[in-house]
Design a protein that fits this description.
Layout (H helix, E strand, L loop, with lengths): L8 H13 L5 E7 L4 E3 L6 E3 L5 E7 L5 E7 L8 E7 L2 E7 L10 E6 L9 E3 L15 H19 L7 H19 L4
Antiparallel strand pairs: 1-4, 2-3, 4-5, 6-7, 7-8, 8-9
Helix pairs in contact: 1-3
């Protein structure tokens, strides 16, 4: 059984955040496929075969009746970056980044709700200072993400909290990945 290794770490981080704020999906249908059976090594220009899945699509319902859809793409020759939309009855949040890895810029947060005063247009939301627990650095944002994780681990150890992801979060994440893989194996178009 091939492992869906194409899931970018950013997507895994977002799905971990979502799994901490909602129950696992009640119903799930997924497809895990290899869209690019040959990859070009940037440094050499050499084409190499790839049998690893590079595309994951999943749709379903949550326990509370909400719907979700996820599409993760890897091995793109022309990367399209990251976009994550969270829609509720009270508004919409959209997180974007031009790249999924090696980010020189942090994710941008857009939002709209009935109190926005801008009709139905998404507007850039500033990240509150309390969420910036480390000093600004000239490091790549991907590296800073790891620094924030280590800082959260340190706070958890000092305060007895579970702000950072835990082993239990990892187990839930892997159960979800297993469900996605099993659903894909049983999928017929």
């Amino acid at each position: 059984m091939p492992s869906p290794t194409c899931c970018p770490s950013t997507a895994a981080t977002f799905s971990t955040c979502c799994s901490r704020s909602s129950d696992p999906p009640k119903d799930l249908t997924a497809i895990v496929e290899t869209q690019f059976p040959e990859l070009t090594v940037l440094e050499t220009g050499k084409t190499v075969p790839s049998a690893k899945p590079d595309e994951v699509m999943a749709v379903g319902t949550l326990e509370n009746g909400g719907l979700f859809s996820v599409q993760l793409e890897g091995a793109q020759k022309f990367p399209t970056g990251l976009q994550s939309d969270i829609t509720s009855t009270e508004g919409v949040l959209r997180l974007t980044n031009d790249r999924a890895f090696e980010n020189t810029e942090d994710n941008t947060v857009h939002g709209v709700n009935g109190d926005s005063g801008n009709g139905s247009a998404l507007a850039v939301l500033p990240v509150p200072k309390e969420y910036r627990s480390l000093p600004d650095a000239s490091l790549d944002e991907s590296v800073q993400d790891l620094a924030h994780l280590y800082a959260a681990f340190a706070r958890d150890k000092a305060n007895g909290t579970t702000e950072a992801t835990t082993f239990a979060d990892a187990v839930r994440q892997h159960h979800l990945i297993d469900r996605i893989q099993r659903s894909s194996e049983g999928f017929s178009a």
